[in-house]
């Protein structure tokens, strides 16, 4: 029996000029409407950005008591999306789980774009945005943030390299065509025409090495490290927990898997293609597993925090469970983001339906937004010393419009990438893998 990798190589070796990646079939009118909406949202974001740059943080709802808000919440949201999507890609390239190979490239693409958005959000949050480069130029070895930013740079470069080598063979094929996509492909391949069996094997080896290097970077440096940024805040008992980085990592797997399911299914539906039912069922099972573990870790995080009987942490938990965040915790984080998706993924009829799995994934993506806000804001609401006023935060239109613009920018990049790059694995490879498994 041939391995999936060998079957892919045989198909590559015997391909013809007609063997192309299936390009999305989206109507011109639908594409114009979609890009038009994204451009409008990005224009609103640019206007808000200009106001933010001119007026500084005075244009936001942030205060000295509540210095973190919407931008920081979205920052950790997209870092988690990136780390989770990347770790899912390692199942394919490092551990050889070929049943997920159809989303391998999309996982890497989503990971890259998510990191771009995460760093854009944290740029907006800087008091002096023009000094963003200082964190790279000056290095304090005792600073968690100093290490974290360097891990981000290495991680993004690694993601870009891995995405490139996963597409390189199809980029060479695409460079033979005409149009702007072919010209871009020709530039990306540096004029290479090598489609030999040895070339394919070499690309597979490189992917495996890059993926193996990226696993500890993603776990300990990227999202685990982002969790450490919050966990070392000793003045905030709710955050100061050694379990928090672990919660961040598991939550990343939840959000990354959910986003990948949603993006893959929506893209296939919009382009008139049929999503892979069996692959979605497997991804849905992983999502249910990760979500269950995440809920268990959260339970112990809350339990241990309450058991310590520390007044500030108890007040923070009360703010989440029965205070001003109760509606979003119980309604969005727990009901929409966990209970309903788990029910969908557990019920036999719906867990076998691609549409139902995608709906569950979308609800998880929405629920994780609430999770991130509940990490950032509640601990800042409760005063850490007697006599200090309670924190208060309500995002201004500048924060909301800029956030909408950044997210629209990410969707714009994604739309361009899936149109111009060979994100889908060729049908011939898919067929060859199934026949030789």
From TrEMBL:
Topology relative to the lipid bilayer, per the entry, is: Multi-pass membrane protein
The keyword Iron-sulfur is assigned to this record: no
Q: Which domain of life is it from?
A: Bacteria
Location in the cell: Cell membrane
For this UniProt record, give its keywords in alphabetical order, as a comma-separated list. Cell membrane, Membrane, Transmembrane, Transmembrane helix
DNA damage in keyword set: no
A cellular-component GO term for this protein: plasma membrane
One short Pfam name that applies is NrfD
How is this protein named in the record?
Molybdopterin oxidoreductase membrane subunit
The major lineage groups are: Bacteria, Bacillati, Bacillota, Clostridia, Neomoorellales
């Amino acid at each position: 029996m041939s391995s999936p990798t060998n079957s892919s190589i045989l198909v590559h070796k015997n391909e013809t000029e007609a063997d192309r990646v299936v390009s999305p079939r989206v109507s011109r009118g639908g594409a114009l409407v979609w890009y038009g909406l994204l451009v409008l949202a990005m224009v609103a974001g640019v206007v808000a950005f200009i106001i933010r740059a001119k007026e500084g943080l005075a244009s936001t709802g942030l205060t000295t008591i509540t210095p973190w808000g919407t931008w920081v919440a979205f920052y950790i949201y997209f870092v988690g999306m990136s780390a989770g999507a990347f770790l899912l890609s390692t199942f394919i390239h490092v551990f050889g789980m070929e049943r997920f190979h159809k989303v391998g490239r999309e996982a890497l693409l989503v990971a890259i774009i998510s990191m771009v958005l995460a760093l854009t959000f944290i740029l907006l949050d800087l008091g002096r945005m023009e000094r963003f480069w200082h964190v790279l130029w000056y290095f304090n070895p005792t600073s968690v943030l100093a290490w974290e930013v360097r891990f981000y740079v290495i991680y993004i470069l690694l993601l870009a390299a891995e995405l490139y080598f996963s597409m390189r063979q199809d980029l060479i094929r695409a460079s033979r065509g005409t149009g702007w996509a072919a010209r871009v492909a020709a530039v990306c391949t540096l004029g290479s025409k090598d489609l030999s069996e040895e070339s394919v094997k070499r690309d597979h080896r490189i992917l495996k090495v890059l993926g193996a290097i990226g696993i500890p970077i993603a776990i300990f440096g990227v999202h685990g490290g982002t969790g450490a940024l919050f966990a070392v805040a000793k003045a905030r008992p709710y955050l100061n927990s050694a379990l928090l980085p672990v919660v961040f990592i598991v939550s990343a797997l939840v959000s990354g898997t959910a986003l990948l399911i949603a993006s893959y299914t929506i893209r296939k539906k919009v382009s008139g293609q049929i999503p892979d039912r069996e692959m979605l069922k497997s991804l849905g099972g992983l999502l249910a597993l990760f979500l269950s573990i995440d809920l268990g870790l959260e339970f112990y995080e809350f339990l241990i925090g309450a058991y310590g009987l520390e007044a500030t942490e108890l007040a923070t938990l009360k703010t989440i469970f029965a205070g001003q965040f109760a509606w979003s915790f119980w309604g969005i984080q727990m009901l929409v983001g966990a209970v309903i998706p788990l029910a969908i993924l557990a019920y036999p009829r719906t867990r076998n339906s691609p549409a139902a799995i995608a709906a569950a994934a979308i609800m998880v993506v929405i629920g994780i937004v609430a999770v991130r806000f509940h990490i950032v804001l509640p601990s800042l609401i409760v005063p850490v010393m007697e006599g200090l006023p309670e924190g208060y935060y309500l995002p201004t239109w500048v924060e909301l419009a800029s956030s909408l613009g950044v997210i629209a920018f990410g969707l714009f990049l994604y739309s361009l990438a899936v149109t111009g790059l060979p994100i889908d694995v060729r049908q011939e490879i898919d067929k060859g893998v199934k026949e030789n498994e």
